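Bench log, entry 3. Co-assembly request; chain sequences pasted below exactly as received.
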Amino acid sequence: MAKDVDRRIFLKGLTLSALALGDVVAFGDLLWASTLANGQKVALAKTAIFVDKTLCSGCRVCEMVCSNLNCEGRNTSSLARLSVEKEYIKGDYGPKVCYQCSDPPCLKVCPVGALQVEERSGAFTRIIDDSLCIGCQQCIEACQQYFRPPRPKFDVQKQQSIECHLCFGDPQCVKFCPMGVLRVEYSEQGLLVGYPVIKED
Amino acid sequence: MTPSGGWVGKILRVDLTTGKTSEISTFDYVPKFLGGRGLGAKICWDEVSSEVGAFDPENRLILATGPLQGTLAPSSGRLTVVGKSPQTGPIESHARSGVGGHFAPQLKWAGYDALIIQGRASKPVYLWITDQKAEILDATSLWGLDTYQTQQMIWKLHGDKTRVMVIGKAGENRSRIACILTDTGDAAGQGGFGGVMGSKNLKAIAVRGTGSVTVARPKELMQLTHDIHRLFARKSLKSDPFQPEEKDFKYNIWGGGYGRGGLTLLDGELLDLCNDPSSGYSQTPDGCFSCPVACRSRVKGPDITPGVALCAQSYMYLESMVQEPEKGYSKITWQAAKLADLYGINSYELMAIIPWLSDCYREKLISEQETGLPLNEIGSWKFISVLLQKMADREGFGDLLAEGGLRAAAKLGGKAEELSWMYYPRAGKFGGYREHWVYLGGFPTGYAVPTLALMWVLDNRDALVSHSYISMLWGAAFINGQNALTAVPEEIFPILKPVMKAVYGSEEAAEFFQPDGKSLNWKWAAPIVKRYHEHSLLKDSYILCDILFPYMFNANSPDHVGDTSFESRLYSAVTGDEMSEEESYRKGEMLCTLERALAARVGRTRGDDIFHDIYFEKEDAGGRKYLREDLERSKSDYYRLMGWDVESGIPTHSTLERLGLKDVAEGLVKKPEPGLPIP
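Structure output for the full assembly:
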């Protein structure tokens, strides 16, 4: 069921976007949407993780594999780049993943350009360059305007923000999820997902 | 050298009498005592003397995690509760109780490997632990609330990411069969530690942590976890989360024949509703922390109490299915189990108490009038709701039943006590735990298995809580197209042979009885049970779940041989402390001997390792019997293998010293010289 819901949001995104995103433009085969303060446009991500929460067992394997791999073996929910939200008594579970927003609020507010669109691999993933991040947490606040919990998190030990980078194209949460809740969606043209197609979650 | 991963390094001590908290280093105890059950046993040895009663303020309630909790290691959501148990009887003795769910990782992330709770608060309190801080807070307004309400109140105060271990009315009223519950249905049931919590005036323990557990070799842990996931689970079909997307793959639990899920096996009203998308009822697999299997399911619906379901919730009130056969597993069956969860009563114990009451009523040993229970309607909602309310409030006859089936039967005495032996097999001073009905009476229902008998007499709780041994037997039955209820021993021997050879070193070990079919084969009982105990102690100390580990039986391969090296490999990858499988068994042997020393200190001897007479009188479905002399000989073999004194069943001084337990050796009273000939 949630798969359908996701699908609907995605499709709705595609149709709505033509109306809502006045400045989606095509360069070659790829769509470019995000506009930075300096007027520069950035490409839509080609890959994003989609969620079918009806299958979620709430086991948090996704969170653990993420923090284990991406935080040098520091295993914990608070350092995972996705969050399993659970209402235990109602029995409502599901992971909240980074949307790889079409027009990422986090990217626009970063004062030092640490939030970037990774272009080298051609996946156009939104990533944080930790050699630049100063730990101001503005990206977290920007995301929080629309999405809760905010998808970037703060690594207290390193005093830097962390963010889903799709494990450089091979998301381990998707691979390890024992239920099949998570899947990778890919579009050669780029995916119109996240903000501003979805403005609240 | 301090290991580089796994443990977070501190144990929190809370003295409720003085209201003070303090910390000790986990590394005073580990890696030697690992964690969980092993760590708890050593703390109890050091701090809980033999005179201390279970409900005395001096008793310790220990909630211990192990090195693997809070990491990616599969099934590492578990916690072990340890202390002097009020349920063991007639003597209160050391016991342990495991619980899954999501509490243990939060405790580690909050900075603590274990909690030691001692003393008694002057008024109801709860404990709030977050990121290296602990506070004892007033719980006057929580006292009397059910287990769900209490958690909801705490979530309001401390956020819904907080995980809570909580007692209900049964625990508050010091029932000997009260559980400690977390979330909607995970409970430390056996042992009666809910009553211990109540005796300390402690309503709940709330934990929230944002720290982390360091894994020494993260890449290796990933690879191992991936390999284990592949053996146990596949991603689900989108249309049915209980089915694997890979056709013919068997979820490698329960021997592979039952698959995922709690209620999926029990036909009836509730399952029909869950399977009907328009009904508003549903059932979905529900996983404990970091577990690929999701053996439980969560059940919800418009007019039922939502929650997770596994054995306890499924089988607690089967009498209702007899009462209303046309409905099968009904909403009443479910609500009965949920009511026990809300009061915080151990459902497993109720699975003995209810049929025993039924037996006593049938034999006219008790009446509706004197008990105040509608005994003529066992199976109805009226009966179970009155029974549980009286037990939780210790009202009338419920006061007696709150002491547990064993003590209640002893109080009634005579025929009523004799009838209870059907459910409480272990005689002597260390009984109190109910039999898992399909096991000891024979495998699976009608056949005697010597190893199971030896496991039962030796344990300090209900044995066979390490399910993988039974799963192996079930698995072999499934291969033959039989199941746990219809399996025939001689037909599963050929399938078990390569498996038993791999795990216990002998093909012959797979044969439960002699080739003539007339007598049981006891030859392998002692060495198998020794290895079983080592596996169990290690599994409860790392801590891992017995639904997965030790991994003995592979339902998906031609030879069905599993791999018992996973636990020590997970341990090595997480802690960075290299331990081979062989070394781990020596540690398991040491921990098992330590637990025996704890029992011996309160008077357990060879004579307590025995069944009631009926277990020697009945013939199994093949016409074979457990013979006393066989059991006694196997006990001697076992004690010898363990290096315990054969006459007394008590670990010898030299064995304890050899195992590095010199202080334990000195603490054990010297036993008399052997006199009588030993079988």
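Residues 43 and 112 of chain A are 19 Å apart (CA to CA). The helical segments of chain A are 2-20, 61-70, 105-109, 138-144, 172-176.
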